[in-house]
Design a protein that fits this description.
The chain is mainly α. The protein has two domains: 1-33 and 208-368 and 403-622, Neurolysin, domain 3 (Orthogonal Bundle), CATH 1.10.1370; 46-189, Butyryl-CoA Dehydrogenase, subunit A, domain 3. Helix content is 63%, strand content 3%. It has 25 helices and five strands. The protein has helices at 4-10, 46-63, 74-104, 109-133, 138-147, 155-163, 171-198, 217-220, 226-240, 244-265, 270-277, 282-293, 296-314, 338-348, 354-364, 404-425, 437-457, 462-498, 505-519, 523-526, 539-542, 547-566, 570-579, 586-594, 601-621, and strands at residues 203-206, 209-212, 371-372, 383-386, 394-397. The strands form two sheets. The protein has a three-stranded mixed beta sheet, with helices on both faces. Strands 1-2 form a two-stranded antiparallel ribbon. A hairpin with a 2-residue loop joins β1 and β2. The model is unreliable at 1-20 (pLDDT under 50).
């Protein structure tokens, strides 16, 4: 059966006017359906929430008789593991529910903060379990599993605890750190949001109506009027970066806290700790940065190629940062209603197979209340997918606007949602339902590549084909090197803060500028405002040290993309890998299912070669 989108593509992609007032990314008639309905999988009312909170508190209290006796017997340990699984489900559900409501309405911060504190206090009472498990030896585990065979499937999980033995504090110290977590690490993300909320961003009049330089920056960057684009970007920069000193203060203090905790545990710094969590090392990170730096000229070549294209097709003599999204004169930038985006994802991701396709359809159906994508006041910026074990995942976006960026974001985050749904449906043990974040991100990134590539391959005209190949390269190459910049910036900043050499906002700005000069080029010398661009990355405040996951993930996704082209059995084994969770290290799982080692420097070079091939393809189209 030909998919609906296939018909659209064969007839030519929809060329809806980019700034027509008649275009509705989410039509008003269906917009109310694209809000979360959390009553089914979360809580129908506050009484139900309070009931789960009471159960979690009672459950953690029931763990207390195990203090000092975690490894006493196999039967007792199995009982403990079972209770911890239930406790983790409850605390995750309690926390995520409040977070989802807060994301959609930031005036609910007080309730979210209270939930954060309550969950931290509950978890702090269970912290002794991990501390005691880390004291067990392999011989201890063998003995306990022999006593209680039902522990056998948990062996890998239990063995992972022993990795942390050299980095584990006393039970009292671990409990204290867990209880203090909101005071140490949550306020920075909340401060970031408060700084955004308190800023009065300018409204500009455009042919499509009034648009806000912050809320509608994606729309404004695509305006045909160059002076309007310039004014929008510079106004946003001035107003956003009025808080640059406080953004920097927050990051420096957060890095200091994370570094201090890591060194207290025996790690070199905070990044050494988070890399260890992911079965990686600082040596591997340094090797990646060094290897990728050798290809910085490839990134600058792409930037220059795009500038030359803009000069030729749009008549702009000296393209500037506010011209990055310019399309050739007379070309209508494709936009997709949410219905068309849904069709695009179903068509482009169908190669994953029927199970994947069915769950993706469930996610995208607004009747299921799993999407919250309509813009409005007091909404958290960004987009994410989240959920807890045993319930379908949901997707949140600051606002769906109908551009390809929005479609690809939905493809990426929808990939996360379906991935975890498949794990749940496969009845994977809860302890193996989550794994290193770069692993999960790699699956989501392949979705973006596949969606952009599908649109490129099915474009009806040379102009559309050129546009979609540009977008594919933006996802695969420009974003990759942007991720390198953001990852290395944070990595180096934490090192410099740890060494006491970085203490001021201007030093952060200079560090970002040097990254920009290496991977983007002269714009970072010509436009001073760009050196403060690092502060537009919410992850530095809300999910510190997360960006390096995107770096490893991007390289893995490029490898997947290339393998799909030559291996007819890849898709089946790939979905099998996703569905089975994380019962082993990432390296072992990748070798077992895909015969792939993404951490080999040769793999990095192979990925860069693939990018260069796509760049040559674009040059040929030009």
């Amino acid at each position: 059966m030909i998919h609906k989108l296939g018909v659209l593509l064969m007839a030519g992609l929809p060329t809806l006017p980019a700034f027509s007032q008649g275009f509705e990314a989410v039509p008003a008639s269906v917009a109310p359906q694209y809000r979360f309905d959390l009553r089914h999988d979360y809580y129908k009312d506050e009484a139900a929430y309070a009931k789960d909170q009471a159960e979690a508190r009672a459950l953690v209290d029931s763990l207390q008789p195990h203090r000092g006796k975690v490894g006493a017997s196999g039967q007792a340990l199995f009982e403990l593991v079972s209770k911890l699984e239930r406790l983790d489900t409850l605390t995750s559900k309690l926390y995520i529910y409040r977070y989802l409501l807060y994301a959609a309405d930031t005036t609910l911060e007080a309730k979210f903060s209270a939930a954060d504190q309550a969950v931290s206090e509950i978890n702090s009472k269970a912290a002794f379990v991990a501390t005691e498990l880390r004291k067990l030896s392999k011989a201890d585990l063998d003995r306990l599993i022999q006593q209680e065979p039902r522990l056998a499937p948990y062996r890998f999980s239990l063995e992972q605890n022993t990795r942390y033995k050299p980095y584990t504090l006393s039970s009292d110290q671990e409990e204290l750190l867990s209880r203090l977590s909101p005071q140490l690490y949550s306020w920075e993300g909340q401060l970031f949001q408060k700084l955004i909320d308190r800023t009065t961003f300018t409204d500009l009049e455009t042919p499509a109506g009034t648009q806000n330089v912050y809320r509608d920056r994606q729309l404004l960057s695509k305006q045909p009027d160059r002076d309007l684009r310039k004014k929008a970007l510079l106004t946003l920069s001035t107003e956003y970066q009025a808080s640059a000193d406080l953004f920097a203060f927050s990051v420096i203090k957060l890095a200091g806290s994370l570094n201090a905790e890591a060194t207290t545990r025996g790690f070199k710094d905070a990044f050494a700790s988070s890399l260890f969590d992911a079965h990686l090392s600082t040596e591997q990170a340094e090797t990646f940065f060094k290897t990728i730096a050798d290809f910085a000229s490839l990134s600058r070549r792409y930037v220059q190629l795009k500038k030359d294209r803009i000069r030729k097709t749009s008549g702009i003599p000296d393209p500037a940062p506010w011209d990055n999204d310019v399309v050739p004169t007379g070309f209508e930038r494709p936009r997709f209603t949410i219905g068309q985006a849904t069709d695009a994802l179903k068509a482009s991701l169908g190669f994953h197979g029927p199970r994947y396709a069915a769950d993706l359809a469930e996610l995208l159906d607004p009747a299921n209340g799993r999407l919250d994508i309509v813009s409005g006041k007091n909404r958290m910026p960004g987009a994410f997918s989240w959920g807890f074990y045993g319930a379908p995942r949901v997707f949140y976006s600051y606002g769906y606007r109908g551009y390809l960026d929005d479609v690809l974001t939905l493809s990426h985050e929808g990939g996360h949602a379906v991935h975890y749904d498949l794990i749940d449906q496969n009845k994977v043990l809860p302890v193996y339902a989550s794994g290193p974040q770069y692993f999960t991100e790699s699956f989501a990134m392949l979705n973006e590549f596949a969606t952009a590539d599908y649109l490129y391959q099915h474009a009806a005209t040379k102009e559309q084909k050129t546009y979609f190949l540009e977008q594919l390269l933006d996802v695969m190459m420009r974003r990759f090197f942007d991720i390198v910049m953001r990852s290395e910036f944070e990595y180096r900043a934490y090192q410099e803060i740890q060494a006491g050499r970085l203490t001021e906002a201007d030093q952060l700005h200079e560090l970002w500028k040097q990254e920009g000069l290496r991977y983007v080029g002269e714009d970072y010398e010509k436009h001073d405002f760009m050196k403060r661009g690092w502060a537009y990355t919410p992850h530095y405040f809300t999910s510190p040290r997360y960006y390096i996951n995107y770096l490893f993930a991007n390289l893995m996704a490029i490898s997947y993309y290339e393998r799909r082209l030559v291996d007819p059995d890849f898709d089946r084994r790939y979905v099998e890998l996703m569905s089975n969770g994380f019962p082993d290290t990432p390296v072992n799982l990748l070798k077992k299912h895909l015969a792939l080692d993404p951490f080999d420097p040769a793999t990095v070079k192979g990925a860069m070669k693939a990018l260069e091939g796509k760049l040559n393809e674009l040059e040929a189209l030009y």
